[in-house]
Amino acid sequence: MLTDRLRNEFIALLGEDRVYTDPDTLALYASDETPKSCTPEAVLFPAGHDHVAGIVRIAAREKLPITPRGAGSGNVGGALPTRGSLVVSFECMNHILEFDPDNRLMVVEPGVVTDDIDDLAATAGLMYAPDPGSGAYSRIGGNLAMNAAGPRTVKYGSTRDHVLGLRAVTGDGREIRAGSRTTKYATGYDLTRLLIGSEGTLALITEATLKLIPAPRQIASLRVCYASTRSACEAVIRAMRQPIVPYALEFMDSRSIEAVREFGMAEGLPSGTQAILMAEVEGDREDIPRYLAALETALRGDGLLEVQSGFSKEEITHLWTARKSLSHAVKKLAPLKINEDVVVPVGKLAELVAAIDDMGRRYNVPVVAFGHAGNGNLHVNIMVHPDDAEEMTRARDCRLELIETVLKLSGSLSGEHGIGSEKRAFVALEFDPTTLELMRDLKKLFDPHGILNPGKKLPD
Ligand SMILES: Cc1cc2nc3c(=O)[nH]c(=O)nc-3n(C[C@H](O)[C@H](O)[C@H](O)COP(=O)(O)OP(=O)(O)OC[C@H]3O[C@@H](n4cnc5c(N)ncnc54)[C@H](O)[C@@H]3O)c2cc1C
User: Which CATH code fits 96-214?
Assistant: First the structure.
């Protein structure tokens, strides 16, 4: 329990209505999307940068751990409180501070909902490119901390590629400004890119200057069905080698298609479909047919069963039905998913998909793989019954083999979900000891007392 002295100090700093220690609120902030929970000591709702700096200074003096939190939609335990921690929720720092279409930028507080940024940008014909599937509720601070990404990443990059500058507070309460308001920048070290993806372990982000780009005039979609996953993976390589970079290039493996069929959402898919690619192009209305033709040519090849195209909103929605219903369909397979978010070079995708298929069979667990093929990023869900100890052991062995396979294929543990508490045990498999030691030194430099999101990102 937070002592009365500290509670009163936080109330003096923030006001009574921003400091919560009642059991109901603590329970509400005890978990994120991972199936785990840990009750924090208090939940604090700062209203601005100075509040955040004040909280960190008190926490540093008292050596109290801080768990930063956006919407709690992360699925790796990033916002999961650690024992004795203060949750700092950025929900009330939800203001768009500046929208400057002339300079194609927006300055936002960390609690702004991601889609609200894109919606406002659209009023001036602009776009905030990163598009995580959770954009309707995740907060930009959480996106920045995790380097969030989405289907548009294949063309435009992830969150890190769309931030000009940051304001933040380090673990000893120092205020820093990183980056600038310009689209070119070669001064000093690039702390902006370092803080993005640092999962709240180096500094608390209190403001971000985001880069905006022109919004697409028109989008068109292709749904391409294949008789084998290998054919689909080979088509991905061809699509990424030609000059028209797709606006999206998404993949579903045979087990995903099976799940969607069982869920009754596979209407219209040709029989024998073992893999699907969803591809999109964007551009001016007159360019779309040429772009689509180029992409379709690349996607045609051995094992092709069917290509369908969509131009209107209704046609596009129809084509995406199977892919969009996948999350719900997968949940029907088993009560718990062990959710990996691995990434390999696109040239290795076929090998990874074949290995996943083989692992599912050998370990006798349903393994569903789908995701952002154009980036080589697959969401691999191992579906399990947590009460079945023997199955859980097989699933854990399967997970370890998956990670080792990905690393052998020159890939990485996470493409977009981050490491949090759930994957940090595997980080030492990816980095050599010297690199890891330098990362730990960086952590000490930014957070000398080790209070910012302890137990996350790096292994013990
Ligand atoms: C249905 C669903 C779909 C998803 N789809 C995607 C997807 O397509 N792409 C993707 O990348 N992710 C996806 N995610 C994962 C998740 O939504 C993202 O990681 C998102 O960026 C988290 O945002 P949040 O506001 O919920 O942050 P939280 O989960 O609250 O926090 C995430 C991390 O950010 C830290 N943090 C939060 N605010 C700050 C701050 N101001 N300063 C420093 N650290 C901070 C937290 O401590 C934590 O480590 C999905 C999740 C769900 C449940």
Answer: 3.30.465.10
